[in-house]
């Protein structure tokens, strides 16, 4: 095939040019994202039920919804959590479930359940979780002094949101911190009492005055007119002018009986930028959009906003495109330094400038053509696929160097140019194909990991497969064709001598080879001892998910664990922010209940999430220590988490599941075990290392008890007391003013006083018009009760989280503890998910090793020789571990990718060397002039000389291309540094392994019987 193609160089060249043009066109259309658009198999149902207790939400709302959703296809887990005024149900599906259909199914079932839910409950929100739901940036909208907060909210909702949504690539714009205008009516109790009236007279007058006649019309001859009541109200002045009839018959304007005003509705949550109340707009991109084009467009829009709306300040924060830019920058750096160092090393070893030029053409062309495969597999350019490309670039250079070196060696042996190109490629073709297949055999099976890990590896596996497949095509077709064209038209004579530099290197190799071959048993023993020693270093390394990145931002997630209002929560957060003022560059906070449509976490009035950006790491660490001390000293009840601000990776991989949770259900009752029974039981739990789960957390509350005996004595209906309490302590709705889609609620103004004083000073009227103090009929007491009610498929449960180092050690004791108390026990958590993932990973790696062995056995037609390649791998891994340990790096995702890169190059070198030894043995034996033993010795020696140059060149170019990252700074360098350490460590040891261990192991694996037979 190579001979056929080389005979038509122009056709081959034009074909590659056409492919590159198509690839360039495709590259411009490929979406650029931070992460692949992965469907997380979860759906969250959120419920907001104002003034409802956790028990009421569980019993009246969440329980019926759970029963209706339990038959969903593919549903694996269902967990619900009811808190004060809010409730959530998290549905987890099998990973093979079509989430588009599941989302539709959930919505349909919610619609069917609507009639069985409370009438005053809004429709539950259904949120589907996707990686594209992670916002790419946040826009801070800060009102300047004198600006109306409600007007700014309307500006954000009606104008800014729509303008940002019109930007190309934006899928959704979400807002938090909005303020709404309402009309409040504050009755004058003294005036009402003097006239023998109650609040109900005021409420009825407003409701009557705001009534509409829908669909009623009158006929006037040939015309027809629709009726509109003249008493319909629009403003507080309209409401104050409404007539109210007193029992005596006197008609009084409502303005003399109540104070009516516009007010800003009290919210359950706030957003702060610095210490100032503001709004935040989160921007979400479409899956097919290019992030590197979207963010600049967003920044341009903000500049226009600043000109158009001078009463508002705008700021862009938490720009997630920095991660993607870092990955793209690293790929560009790898290409640049890879090309420069490959040129330098090739020139050093080969002395001919034309060879580096050929690689300079093949490297970007291979990368560009790889994007065609991205297009056909519907992949986006993201951090995961880019890391796959970066992984394959090392082997791409490797293949090019090996092919060029072999062609050059064939020319040095005296073959004509055309024959040298053909035989140079044919000789290494099988070995290179095997080396690529072995790399894919190690990597591609990881796609079959369950969950998000497998989905992420899919993008990486396709990227690696793409660039390695294209690199083979380039190495076998384009490179020999370019070599042939360049050298056939060159008048410069071919220099078949070795340079002074390589001659010295060859002498050093010969010295080492003589030492090893002269003491084979000792050398083999040393290599075999290095395997367990190198692998044992892994026990000294810290294991983490992502490498430690020098982050300048931090978050504080705090739950005050007290029944405070949203306003008090905001005041506490402002106090914290002011205590650090001047220390941070930027700060923002989401306080209380969040208004985001896509927020799928807990929504509690008592919680806050603060974000800080600091100028230096030292300032950040000092501020975190100060915050921690302040919280412990001033708010001992608060539970909080301080740490680095999560990036998109953290948000994707973070799990809501506890690490090790012991759950139980009361088998005798379908409700939580009461506190008075539960607390003594918890003191008998088998371990003391535990924390209360949500269903055991407590909060203080006030419980009203109506005195039925007194109400019966004074002939006061229960409904009158209940309505009076609702008017006094709830946000009592009177009516809504509706005009052109805008709704302005009219509410009864809540008294701003302690509830004890309100009960003492408020009167209720009996059926005989006698009035009594409300406090006579209401008893109250303070008590602690459960903050949340938790449930799963089987019903209500309570739980605790075991924090012991080995939580599963006492699992049988946990079960016995529950059985003694007639509790149904289950143990769940991330601990078991991790164990399952490790089992899967071990199984997949075993399959990978078997595939590797089968491929090599087919290549070498031997069952023994593949073991030589397999045994080179732990030596390289040990070298990688050693360098990671020396530089204080951890075992993480990036260092694992580095191990795969390094092993791919090591396997490549070992395969080629064994293949060369096999061919030379056959050649020497066929000559009939030497014995089999001499043929073996000569083959081992000659193969080392032949493969020395490509092995050194591939290792040195890869190591030198990566070294600049070690000395770089910034987010991208921090991410890539563990990968670099792993590759440098592995290749340093791996090069020695390929040079000396492979011929040594080959010599030991060849039996005396086979030599005699030969």
Summarize the structure.
Among the domains are: 2-32 and 324-345 and 354-546 and 834-1013, Multidrug efflux transporter AcrB transmembrane domain (Multidrug efflux transporter AcrB transmembrane fold), CATH 1.20.1640.10; 36-132, Multidrug efflux transporter AcrB pore domain (Alpha-Beta Plaits, 2-Layer Sandwich), CATH 3.30.70.1430. The protein is built from 30 helices and 30 strands.
Account of the protein in words:
The chain is of the alpha+beta class and 1014 residues long. Among the domains are: 2-32 and 324-345 and 354-546 and 834-1013, Multidrug efflux transporter AcrB transmembrane domain (Multidrug efflux transporter AcrB transmembrane fold, Up-down Bundle), CATH 1.20.1640; 36-132, 2-Layer Sandwich (Alpha-Beta Plaits). Helix 13 (417-443) packs antiparallel against helix 14 and helix 13 (417-443) crosses helix 27 (893-926). The longest helix has 38 residues, at 451-488.
């Amino acid at each position: 095939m190579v001979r056929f193609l080389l005979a038509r160089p122009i056709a081959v060249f034009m074909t590659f040019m056409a492919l590159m043009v198509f690839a360039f066109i495709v590259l411009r259309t490929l979406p650029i994202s931070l992460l692949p658009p992965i469907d997380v198999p979860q759906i969250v149902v959120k419920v907001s039920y104002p003034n409802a207790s956790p028990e009421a939400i569980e019993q009246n709302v969440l329980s019926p919804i759970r029963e209706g959703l339990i038959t969903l296809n593919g549903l694996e887990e269902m967990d619900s959590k009811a808190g004060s005024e809010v409730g959530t149900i998290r549905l987890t599906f099998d990973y093979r479930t079509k989430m588009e259909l599941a989302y539709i199914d959930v919505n349909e079932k919610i619609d069917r359940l609507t009639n069985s839910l409370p009438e005053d409950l809004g429709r539950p929100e259904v949120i589907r979780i996707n990686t594209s739901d992670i916002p790419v940036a946040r826009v801070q909208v800060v009102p300047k002094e004198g600006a109306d907060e409600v007007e700014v909210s309307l500006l954000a909702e009606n104008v800014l949101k729509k303008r940002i949504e019109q930007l190309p690539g934006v899928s959704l714009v979400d807002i938090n911190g909005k303020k709404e205008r309402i009309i409040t009516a504050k009755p004058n109790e003294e005036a009402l009492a003097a006239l023998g009236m109650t609040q109900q007279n005021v409420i009825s007058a407003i409701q009557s005055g705001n009534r509409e006649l829908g669909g009623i019309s009158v006929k006037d001859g040939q015309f027809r007119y629709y009726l509109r009541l003249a008493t319909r109200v629009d403003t507080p002045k309209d409401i104050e002018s409404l007539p109210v009839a007193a029992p005596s018959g006197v008609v009084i304007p409502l303005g003399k009986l109540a104070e009516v005003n516009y007010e800003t509705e009290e919210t359950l949550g706030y957003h702060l930028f610095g210490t100032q109340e503001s709004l935040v707009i989160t921007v979400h991109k479409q899956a097919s959009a290019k992030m590197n084009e979207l963010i600049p467009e967003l920044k341009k829009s903000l500049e226009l906003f600043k000109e158009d709306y001078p009463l508002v300040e705008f700021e862009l924060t938490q720009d997630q495109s920095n991660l993607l830019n870092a990955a793209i920058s690293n790929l560009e750096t790898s290409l640049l330094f890879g090309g420069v160092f490959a040129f330098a090393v090739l020139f050093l070893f080969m002395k001919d400038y034309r060879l580096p030029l050929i690689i300079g053409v093949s490297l970007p062309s291979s990368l560009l053509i790889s994007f065609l495969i991205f297009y056909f597999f519907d992949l986006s350019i993201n951090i995961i696929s880019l890391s796959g490309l970066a992984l394959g670039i090392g082997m791409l250079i490797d293949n090019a160097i090996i092919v060029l070196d072999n062609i050059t060696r064939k020319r040095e042996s005296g073959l004509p140019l055309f024959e040298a190109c053909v035989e140079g490629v044919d000789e290494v073709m099988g070995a290179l194909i095997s080396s690529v297949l072995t790399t894919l055999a190690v990597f591609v099976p990881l796609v079959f990991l369950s969950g998000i890990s497998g989905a992420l590896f899919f993008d990486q596996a396709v990227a690696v497969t793409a660039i390695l497949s294209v690199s083979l095509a380039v190495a076998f077709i384009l490179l020999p064709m370019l070599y042939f064209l360049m050298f056939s038209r060159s008048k410069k004579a071919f220099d078949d001598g070795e340079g002074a530099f390589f001659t010295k290197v060859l002498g050093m190799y010969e010295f080492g080879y003589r030492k090893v071959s002269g003491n084979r048993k000792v050398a083999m023993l040393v290599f075999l001892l290095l395997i367990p020693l190198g692998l044992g270093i892994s026990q000294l390394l810290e294991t983490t998910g992502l490498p430690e990145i020098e982050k300048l931002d931090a978050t504080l997630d705090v739950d005050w664990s007290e029944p405070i209002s949203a306003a008090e929560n905001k005041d506490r957060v402002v106090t914290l922010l002011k205590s650090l003022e001047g220390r941070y560059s930027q700060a923002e906070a989401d306080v209380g209940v969040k208004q985001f449509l896509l927020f799928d976490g807990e929504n509690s009035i008592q919680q806050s999430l603060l974000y800080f950006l600091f100028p230096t790491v030292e300032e950040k660490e000092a501020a975190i220590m100060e915050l921690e001390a302040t919280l412990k000293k001033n708010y001992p009840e608060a539970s909080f988490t301080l740490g680095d601000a999560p990036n998109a990776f953290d948000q994707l991989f973070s799990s809501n599941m506890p690490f090790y949770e012991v759950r139980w259900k009361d088998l005798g009752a379908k409700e939580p075990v009461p506190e008075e029974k539960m607390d003594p039981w918890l003191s008998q739990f088998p371990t003391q290392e535990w924390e209360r789960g949500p269903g055991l957390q407590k909060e203080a509350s006030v419980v009203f008890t109506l005195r039925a005996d007194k109400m019966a004595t004074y002939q006061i209906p229960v409904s009158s007391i209940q309505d009076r309490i609702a008017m006094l302590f709830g946000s009592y709705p009177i009516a809504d003013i509706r005009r052109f889609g805008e709704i302005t609620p009219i509410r009864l103004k809540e008294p701003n006083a302690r509830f004890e004083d309100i009960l003492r000073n408020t009167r209720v009227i009996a059926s005989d018009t006698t009035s009594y103090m409300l406090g006579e009929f209401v008893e109250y007491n303070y008590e602690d009760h459960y903050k949340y009610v938790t449930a799963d498929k089987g019903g209500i449960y309570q739980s605790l989280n075991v924090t012991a180092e080995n939580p599963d050690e006492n699992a049988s004791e946990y079960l016995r503890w529950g059985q003694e108390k007639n509790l149904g026990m289950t143990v769940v958590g991330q601990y078991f998910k991790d164990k399952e993932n490790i089992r899967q990973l071990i199984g997949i790696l075993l399959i990978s090793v078997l595939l590797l062995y089968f491929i090599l056995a087919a290549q070498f037609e031997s069952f023994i020789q593949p073991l030589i390649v397999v045994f080179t791998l732990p030596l390289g891994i040990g070298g990688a571990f050693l360098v990671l340990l020396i530089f204080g790096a951890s075992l993480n995702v990036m260092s694992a990718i580095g191990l795969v890169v390094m092993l791919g190059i090591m396997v490549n070198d070992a395969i080629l060397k064994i293949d060369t030894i096999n061919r030379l043995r056959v050649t020497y034996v066929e000559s009939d002039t030497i014995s089999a033993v001499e043929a073996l010795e000569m083959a081992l020696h000659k193969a080392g000389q032949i493969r020395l140059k490509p092995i050194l060149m591939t290792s040195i170019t890869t190591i030198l291309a990566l070294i600049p990252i070690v000395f770089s700074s910034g987010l991208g360098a921090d991410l890539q540094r563990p990968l670099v350490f792993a590759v440098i460590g592995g290749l340093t040891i791996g090069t020695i392994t390929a040079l000396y261990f492979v011929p040594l192991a080959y010599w030991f694996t060849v039996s005396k019987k086979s030599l005699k037979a030969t």
